[in-house]
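Listing S7. Sequence submitted for prediction.
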Amino acid sequence: MRGKFRQISLPRRLVADLMHASAGVPLVSLKRTLNVRAIVEARARAAQAPGWAAIFVKAFALVARTEPTLRTLHVKWPWPCLYELPRSVGMVAIARVEKGEDCVLFERVCAADEMPLAEVDALIRRAKTAPLHEIPSFRKMLCVTRLPLPLRRLAWAIGMNFGRQRANFCGSFGVTSVAAYGPGELHALSPGPFLLSYGVIRPDHTVDVVLRWDHLVCDAALIAQTLIRLEQVLGGEIAAELGAGRPQADARLVRAAGSRL
């Protein structure tokens, strides 16, 4: 059967490079169902509810603040070793449509645990709509992707195998989801050491979370503890921050109503 040739677009070439880089990472996965009732109720009361991607990015960064292993990379150059980062660097998968083609790009969120949740959410929302050249992480990725194949392979080899550069290229953890398109369990690949994906929030206020990790960095016991701690942070610090924002929103409404009297 005769078909036709189609040129590989720049975003699709980026995915090919990511899959090539991910092939050497021994990822293992653990799934657990988390109770997020406190977050669901807090979002329902919030004046401007943040997206779930922002919530999970900040929650994981808060867990990693007290667990250095979740900020650790395995690198090969100049010799195989573990490289601990001082802060978390999240890479969030952003679904976009460019020139009529569905594609995925990655927004970099550094030290989300030190940022207000609203600011994390604003970064992610902007990455969904702003022109590509206005998002630094998009611009850098696509710049490398425009290089000829041998130079791209060299760039990725440097980016994957030196600690500081790997943090810039891949971050210390990633967050992705297909929940916007309905139920499904996503086991994605990643060149980074940790990748969190979450499903649809169920009517009973639970959600399935899959955490994939580089087995060269840690073992399953720490990941199981991480998911327990993640549930605690979601129902504790994150829900409290959402709740703290509500009185401020109510106060603005009161002041606005008073100015009209």
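Caption to Listing S7: primary sequence and predicted structure tokens for the chain studied. The radius of gyration is 20 Å. The chain is about 45% helix and 20% strand.
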